[in-house]
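[job 4471] stage=fold_predict status=RUNNING
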Amino acid sequence: MKRYAIIVALFLLCGYAHSQMNLTPDPHANDPIYQELKRLISDQSDCLKNEAQSKKLNKVDLETAAFAVMANCSPQTQRYKGYMANHFPGNPPQFEQWWNQKEQNAMQFVKNVIALVRTQ
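[job 4471] inference complete, writing structure tokens
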């Protein structure tokens, strides 16, 4: 359990940005839990980034655009949430508090990407 708590903590620190560079060998390359978590986070962050760059969002205000992106990425987000709920090192109320913060961070991330795209 401690090993998984450390893995989860590492991913919590990473947030939504994940590095495309692999300068050192991955010490968790053979850990299926780590690899699945890594894939789920990558899927969600890729979806959020791709959807936030859609030209269709230019016709609506920032808040509406951000909610549209979150809705379009709901399948990836729900897979990530379900996996984390089963592997979270705390109790259910702690998970809900943590997840609510993750959702707020995701919404802010999406707004930042949309704003960046709109100003270019």
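[job 4471] summary: The two ends are 46 Å apart (CA to CA).
[job 4471] exit 0
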